[in-house]
Amino acid sequence: MDDLRIDFAGGAVDHRRRFGGGRGQALPRAVGLKNGKTPDVVDATAGLGRDAFLLASLGCRVTLIERSAQMHDLLADALARAAASDVGDIVARMTLLHGDARDLLPKLSPEVVLVDPMHPERKKSALVKKEMRIIREIVGVDSDAAELMQVALATARKRVVLKWPQKAEPLAGIRAASHRIEGKSTRYDVFMTG
Q1: How do 186-192 and 159-165 pair as beta strands?
Q2: Cβ partners under 8 Å of residue 20, min gap 6
Q3: Which of 25, 65, 83, 93 has the most Cβ atoms closer than 10 angstroms to its Cβ?
Q4: What is the model's pLDDT at position 93?
Q5: What's the pTM value of the predicted model, to 2 decimals?
Q6: Domain 11-192, what architecture?
Q7: Residues of the chain with pLDDT > 70: what percent?
Q8: Residues 48-64: pLDDT tens digits?
Q9: Where are the domains of the chain?
Q10: Residues ≥6 apart with Cβ < 8 Å to 167
Q11: How far is residue 156's CA from residue 148's CA, in Å, rounded to a whole number?
């Protein structure tokens, strides 16, 4: 974990915020950022917080839920550092909760839920980035992703967005997506609930 540090004020996260394409990117479109709408989003699997930060940078209020104590601590540290930087106005729209999203979502009555579980092991021989290997060591494999999706589908007032590898089979145990927004390596399966 010593090699892992979350930074919202610089690096790839800052570059994506400034040059990534704004509301035209796949994730903002998937959560419903269009026609002047800026929904409140719950990121049920916060991880590194990058998707939550992007959405907050576009005006969304985002609640991040992280059940891993180590990842939660990394996020809390990153948010505290960012609050004192030039992105403080963005992280002010981000609220971090520690706990299991399956327990917390019913209490939150979310408008939109983003679920980005640990993705299945790749079949390619190339290793995933070191950062993702470290995260997998910390959080495990998210074997309860289908159960989390069921809770999200039952509690989201408007939509649930599942971030999933482009070429992976659909997540087993959940209904078919209403539609999908595809990127180069990632797709967003969108489930309309409202």
Answers
A1: antiparallel
A2: 54
A3: 65
A4: 97
A5: 0.87
A6: 3-Layer(aba) Sandwich (3.40)
A7: 85
A8: 999 999 999 999 999 99
A9: 11-192
A10: none
A11: 12
